[in-house]
Write a structure and sequence with these properties.
The complex is a heterodimer of chains A (114) and B (112). Chain A is mostly beta strands and 114 residues long. In chain A, 0% of the residues lie in helices and 54% in strands. By secondary structure, chain B is mainly beta. Chain B is 0% helix and 50% strand. Chain B contains no helices and eleven strands. In chain B, the strands form two sheets. In chain B, strands 2, 4, 5, 6, 9, 10 and 11 form a seven-stranded mixed beta sheet that branches. A four-stranded antiparallel beta sheet of chain B has the order 1-3-8-7, with no helix packed on it. Classes of the chains: A mainly beta (114), B mainly beta (112). Chains A and B meet through strand 4, strand 5 and strand 9 of A and strand 5 and strand 10 of B.
């Protein structure tokens, strides 16, 4: 069955360091992969999308890589700030005709310590 | 337009009662999705509309669940004969095309 694994339920890092979050998937081939941020009691907020033919994508302090051979995506936050503390969800996505349902991992809770 | 709006934000109901949630998507978005999220888990797909047509339903969506999107605008999700296992956050999202969903803040359902 399809499975998505995100590294360790919680990740604590010091302010200013780079946070690296991992998303591994098995038993399917996504056309693209999305990353979302979720704060407590709120819905997820879209951050970045990377397609299977792209190796890397950047947006401000965020960088995402997508390795379809390893079936893995890495999500980096450089120069992290306490305001980056949240749960980050990855969503490998299959393009299946009329529907593009997201399948989410369980998330990694990031805490940036001042 | 201020984004995806969901009402109510919180709902407490007794087991066996029916509940209905409403989602108002971003007006120009033709696609609308319902997800369910429990504590410590990622959102799980329930159903998907393109305009007014319900095109996909998850196996999670039992016969007690029904969703509508009349005229391709707002959507409702109804749960009949609620059970304690239905307690969760119900999230609605919309998109124009399939990329980069915009989620609402969700409706938290507690079945007592």
């Amino acid at each position: 069955s399809q499975k998505i694994e995100q590294n360790s339920e919680a990740l604590n890092i010091q302010e200013g360091k780079t946070a690296t979050l991992t998303c591994n998937y098995t038993n399917y081939s996504p056309a693209y992969l999305q990353w979302y941020r979720q704060d407590p009691g709120r819905g997820p907020v879209f951050l970045l999308l990377i397609r299977e033919n792209e190796k890397e994508k950047r947006k401000e302090r965020l960088k995402v890589t997508f390795d379809t051979t390893l079936k893995q995506s890495l999500f980096h936050i450089t120069a992290s700030q306490p305001a980056d503390s949240a749960t980050y969800l990855c969503a490998p996505t299959i393009s299946s005709g009329s529907a593009r349902q997201l399948t989410f991992g369980s998330g990694t809770q990031l805490t940036v310590l001042p | 337009d201020t984004g995806v709006s969901q009402n109510p934000r919180h709902k407490i109901t007794k087991r066996g009662q029916n509940v209905t949630f409403r989602c108002d998507p971003i007006s120009e978005h033709n696609r609308l999705y319902w997800y369910r999220q429990t504590l410590g888990q990622g959102p799980e797909f329930l159903t998907y509309f393109q305009n007014e047509a319900q095109l996909e339903k998850s196996r999670l969506l039992s016969d007690r669940f029904s969703a509508e999107r009349p005229k391709g605008s707002f959507s409702t999700l109804e749960i009949q004969r609620t059970e304690q296992g239905d307690s969760a956050m119900y999230l609605c999202a919309s998109s124009l095309g399939g990329d980069g969903y915009t989620f609402g803040s969700g409706t938290r359902l507690t079945v007592v």
